[in-house]
Amino acid sequence: MYILIAGGGNVGFYLAKRLISNKHTVALIEKDKEVCDEIAKEQNILVINGDACDPTFLEEAGIKRADVLAAVTGEDEDNLIICQLSKNIFDVSRTVARVNNSKNTRIFSELGIDVPVDGTSLIATVIEEEASFEDIVKLMTFKRGKLSIVRIDLTNESPVVGKQVMDMQIPKDSVLVSILRGGEVTIPKGDTVLKAGDDIIALTTIENERKLLDTLLGVVKG
User: Fold this and answer.
1) Chain segment 44-89, per-residue pLDDT in tens
2) How far apart are CA 205 and CA 149, in angstroms?
3) Rounded to an integer, what distance in angstroms lies between the CA atom of residue 202 and that of residue 160?
4) First to last CA, the chain
5) What is the 3-state secondary structure (H, E, C) of 120-154?
6) Would 96 disulfide with which of 70, 122, 145, 176, CB 3.0-4.6 Å?
7) Residue 118 pLDDT level (bands cut at 50, 70, 90)
8) Strand order of the sheet with strand 184-186?
C-alpha cells in the first residue's frame, strides 16, 4: 500500500518506521524543516517540508495514489482538515486521524473520519506493541462503519478474568487485538485466558464501544 502520513512527531515517525518494516511505501509531510531533515536521515522515504492542510503539499506527496492517509499532528483541527481534504478533494478511501482531545472523537467520526484514534499514548501503543496497522485497514475494508480503538486495563472485578477468549460474548464487529502482560505483548487466541492486570487493545464500532467495555469491565450500575 501507499500510505501518506501528515505529522512527523514521535507518533508519525514510529508509524512510518513500522509501515516501512511491513514493506509499505510511505511518504510524510511535516511543517518543521529540522524535523524533516532528521526523518530523511533516518528513513529512506519521501519527506515533504510543508503544511498538510495545504492541498499543494498533499499533491506533492502523492495523495492521488495514496491508499491510506494518516493525520497524526498534535492539532485536532489540522488532523480533521487534512482528512477531509484527502477524502473530499482527492478521494482517498481510508483516513486515520489522531485525536488529541478525547472530546473530539465523536465529532471526527460524524464528520467522516474512518478511524479516529483517541490519545497519543494509545496510537503509540498500537504502533509500538505489535498491533498491526494492517489489521486496522483490513477491518475497515470489511466494515465501513466508524471504528473505535479502545484500551482496557482488566481488574480483579472484571467478569472476563479467568475466561478463555472463545468463551466470551464479544459484541459484533469487535476484536481483541493485543494483550500487554508483564511487559510482553501477545496476540489473543481462542484458548487465551484473560488475567487481572492485562492491558488490552481492542477494535470495535463506535455504536458497540459501550457494549465491549461492559463485557470486559462489567456493567456499571447507578
Assistant:
1) 999 999 999 999 999 999 999 998 899 999 899 999 999 999 999 9
2) 9
3) 14
4) 47
5) HHHHHHHHHCCCCHHHHHHHHHHCCCCEEEEEEEC
6) 70
7) low
8) 147-153, 199-205, 175-181, 184-186
pLDDT given at position 160? 94
SS3 of residue 18 by DSSP: helix
Collapsing DSSP to helix, strand or coil, 29 comes out as: strand
Question: Distance between CA 143 and CA 139 in Å, rounded?
Answer: 6
CA–CA separation, 52 and 31 (whole Å): 8
pTM across the whole model = 0.59
Instruction: Calculate helix-pair angle for 10-21, 33-42, nearest 10 degrees.
Output: 20
Longest Cα–Cα distance of the chain, Å, equals 55
| CA neighbor of 217 nearest in space, from 157, 137, 168 | 157
Question: HSE of 192 in the Cβ direction (CA atoms, 13 Å)?
Answer: 17
Pairing of strands 199-205, 147-153: antiparallel
- Which of 149, 153, 151, 146 lies closest to 135, judged by CA? 149
115-132 burial: b if 16+ Cβ within 10 Å, else e? bbbbbbebbbbbbeeebe
pLDDT in tens, 19-45: 888 788 999 999 999 999 999 998 899
